[in-house]
Amino acid sequence: MVSHNTNRFGGITRRKALQSGAVVIGGGVAGCLTSDDENGENGSHEVHVLGPEGGMTIPVFLYGQENNVWLDRGIDFSFEVTGYGQFIRCFSGDQCTGAGVATTFDFPQDVADGVPVQIFSPSMTEINHAFVRADSDIEGPADLEGRVMGADQLSSGTTQSFRAYWIEEHGFDLMEDTDEIVDASSASLYDMLVEDEEIDAAIMFTGFTIDALADDRFRSISYLADEWTDQTGYPPQVTMHGAFENFVTSSPDAVLSFWEGWVEAVELFESNFEDAIAQYGVLAGLDLEDDAEMAEVERLVEEAPLFPTDWGEGWIDSHVEFYDMLERNDAIDSAPGRDSFLLHDELE
C-alpha cells in the first residue's frame, strides 16, 4: 500500500472566513446565540451544533441561522466549525448540546460505547463516486480486479461503505482483489487520475467528487447513493441528525423544532442558492470562481437530493439494512438496531 496523504482544506483562514461573511470566534465559526444551560433564556432550548471544516452542511446551517429559523422556534442555536476529530466527538465527547450532527460511519461506535444518542432525521446524502479516466476500459467495480485503486483513507466511512457494497453486489473486494491500493489524499488522487499516473480508479471525498463530476476528463463507474436507493428507496446518508436521550425525554418538542428549522433552512438555501453560497460557500471548501463546480453543487442540491427533508419508517429500515451490510462485511463491529432511531411521531 502506498500513502500520499495531505489535506485539501487544511484550516479555514480568517481571511476566507471573513470573505464568506462568517463570524470567527475562538477556534471556530459560531453563532451569536449563547446561554448558560440547556433551557436557555426565556424558556428557549439551547442547541450547539458542530460542523467539520469543509463540510457541505455549513452553508445550510449558517444561512438558516442568519434567517432565524431556529430562533423563531424557541431554539437558542449556535454553530461551530471545527476539525474533524472534534466534530466526530459531538456526542461521545459532549461537544454538542441537545442535538447535533452524527456521521453515519462513526455513529455505530457511539452506540457500542453506550453513548446516549438517537438519530431522528437525515442530514446529507452520500454523494461520492468511484471515478476512472474518461477513456478508461473499466466499466464497473469488477473490472478493477488486478488494477491499481486509489482511496482517501482506507478506513474512512466512504471507502468502507463502497467496499462492503461492492463485495455483496459485485463480488469484488477492493482491499483484496486489486493489484495495489494507493492510500492518498483526494487532491493527490485527483492529480494522479488527471496525469495518468499510478492509479486506474479512485474514490475521493465530497469536494473532489464535485470537482470530478464537473470535469469531463473523469467518468463515474459506481454511485453508491443511486444503487442503494434503487434497492431500498432511500439514499445512504454521510451525516444524520441525532439528539441526546435526555434532551429527547425532557424536550421532545425542541427536537421537532430543530428538525423543522433544518427543513426551513434547506428550503431557504435551495431557493436562495446564489446568495447563500456567496456568503458561506468558502467555508464548505467551494471554489466560488469555478462556474462548473457551482453548477454541479446546485444540481446535486436539487436532484440528489443533497439535503433530504423527509423522514419515516422507510428511511430507518434503509439505514438499519445499510448498517447490517457494513457489519456483515467487517466495516463496523456492530450494527445499531431499530431502537437507535426515532420517528417524529415518537416525539409528539
Automatic annotation (TrEMBL):
Organism: Natrarchaeobius chitinivorans
Official protein name in the record: ABC transporter substrate-binding protein
Superkingdom as given in the UniProt entry: Archaea
Entry annotated with the keyword DNA damage: no
Record's GO cellular component terms: periplasmic space
Keywords linked to the UniProt accession: Signal
Domain SsuA/THI5-like: residue ranges: 109-217
Pfam families: NMT1
